[in-house]
Design a protein that fits this description.
With 168 residues, the protein is an alpha+beta fold. It has one domain. Helices cover 45% and strands 28% of the residues. The strands form 2 sheets. A 3-stranded antiparallel sheet has the order 1-5-6. Strands 2-3-4 form a 3-stranded antiparallel sheet.
Length: 168
Amino acid sequence: MSTTSEPVSPRTLPPPGGGKREIFWSLFGALACTALLVGLALFMVPDIANDWRVKNTAQPVAEGQVTKGRCSTRLVITTCDATLSMRGKAGPITREVDLLFLGVGGGDYTVNVLADPARPELITTDLGLDRLWNRTLTALVAGGILLLGAIAPILALLRRRRGVAGEG
């Protein structure tokens, strides 16, 4: 019984430091996560901060109105955008609010316009104040995930580069 072995063809391995494609996708992913993190900060943080400022002092505004209000729910994420207006002592006050929170259900939301009498420019809604902790935790968790997504690929590339430099 004879055994014949066929010659083993050499296998090519990716370069130990990562190829250009790996570097590109790592940097692209980090940049995309950074852009989403900045967008999240611009979209959510100002409204959350304003609502925390007035959460204990906000009162219903009789002449307050919601214009262009819209909420939509996808899976468990609800986003609401609205333009709020009221008459202040110095004239009309208008403010756009953007809410993002987690929760099942969705559907139509009825909101009341609220404002702090000492700071009427921070006009808000009862929906925003009712979901304030939800919105805050959602922003913190989403921000943490995006921050990790922005930093992890860079750290992985640096770690791999150090490993290659140590081997050579």
